[in-house]
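Below is our example:
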Amino acid sequence: MNAHWKRLAVASVAIVSVLAGACAAPPPQIPATTQPALSTIAQPYAQGLRRAGVQSVQVFSNGARVRVATNFGELYLRYPAGLSPTAFAVYDDGTAVEVDSDTYNAGNSAQYEAAIKAILPESIKFATDNNTRVIQDRFGKN
């Protein structure tokens, strides 16, 4: 094997090792403690969430992305710039909205309120726009 192929083989092994390590990282923990105060803040968005087919919105503490589960699949949004990191999950079962968070407390309630008021309307808009695209793709554009 010539020197070029040896370098390529070593580089390939290094890349595979990095990718394997990245894939082995544990998934973020989903918040599980029901927070009635946060559920009250999210309640005004319930009808919009239902109309957009949003089943849940998950915000992880890493502050990178927001996961939105909809009737048409999962969508990912960027966490709003300028907001302090939060971690919560909003669930809509068709009759009620529930918000879970393991890190919410009275001392950080303002940052959670700000996050909910920024993320839920954006999630509704993004899901509604996605629904329109999916329907147009499935039934053809006019």
